[in-house]
Amino acid sequence: MHSTDLFKNIPKKYHPKGFNILYEDRDIIVGNKAPGFLTVAALWNKTATIHYALNQYVRKGNSKSRKCVFVVHRLDQDTSGVLIFAKSIQAQQWLKNNWKDTVKIYYAVVHGVPAQRSGTISSYLTEDEDYVVHSSRKDKKGKLSHTEYEVLKEVGRFSLLKIKLLTGRKNQIRVHLVNLGHPVVGDVKYGRKTDGRYRFLALHAHSIAFKHPFHQAPLHFTAEVPGYFRKLIDYAY
After folding, report:
1. Distances (CA, A) of 237 to 12, 108, 115, 200
2. Structural domain includes residue 169
3. CA dist., res. 69 & res. 34, Å (int)
4. 76 is known as an active-site residue
5. Is 1 inside any structural domain?
6. Domain that holds residue 107
7. CATH number, domain at 80?
8. Residue 2 lies in a domain
9. What is the distance between the alpha carbons of residues 34 and 36, in angstroms, rounded to a whole number?
10. pTM
């Protein structure tokens, strides 16, 4: 799907830092989020977010403008990849209401080599007061979550996995890959504490397929992986 020229007419200084716009029309904005950027405001950071930057972008510097974008889904701060925002409440609600039909594919570089080349990880996920997500196969108080994976390539002590996100819980992929025994490279929160030597988390939202909220035409977007993925595993991403 080719992008429109809408964003090309907006001065460069208003283009959102950390978010490479792939496509924009009157209803949606789709882009590739860089690692290290928050999708939305957090308690410790209200303005250095993609959401805030896109609000400034659609206002084109007009402080009196009430234009804004609406959050459809989120990526973890350290996760890169394709991200959708709506330009109206109607578009946002349509996308959220039909989110179960959206196909989301991720790449992850993990430690070690999974015993099974493919499979589905399922567990109940809950978040504690410290914003840490916990996984249980028995505690049904959490939200039942499913992550499908396939090993694409093995190189020494790392493996490249293709992930299909069947549900969309916070930190789901990271927690499920720890359950599998193969944490994401660079994940100091859930994986190996010694992974602080890696600058970024090796988790990338590679592609997303969904129907347009207005005319329902099928859309498919891919986001190029950051360079450090190729340094870990050389692959035709």
Report:
1. 29, 11, 23, 18
2. yes
3. 19
4. yes
5. no
6. 7-232
7. 3.30.2350.10
8. no
9. 6
10. 0.91
**Distance in angstroms (rounded) separating the CA atoms of residues 107 and 222:** 12
* Token pair belonging to 29: 């904005």
Q: Number of folded domains in the chain?
A: 1
pLDDT for position 141: 81
- The pair phi, psi for residue 35, each rounded to 5°, is -65, 150
Cα 110 to the center of its chain, rounded Å: 17
Q: How far apart are CA 192 and CA 73, in angstroms?
A: 27
Beta carbons of 120 and 148 less than 8 angstroms apart: yes
86 within a domain of the structure (yes/no): yes
Q: Are 84 and 23 in contact (CB under 8 A)?
A: no
Residue tagged active-site, from 5, 27, 76, 78: 76
The per-residue pLDDT for 65 is 73
Q: How far apart, in whole angstroms, are the C-alpha atoms of residue 198 and residue 187?
A: 9
Task: For residue 83, count other CB atoms closer than 10 A to its CB.
Answer: 27
Closest CA to 229 of 211, 193, 194, 205: 205
The string of pLDDT tens digits covering residues 49-105 is: 999 999 989 988 666 777 899 999 999 999 999 999 999 999 999 999 999 999 999
190-213: per-residue pLDDT in tens?
998 888 788 899 999 999 999 999
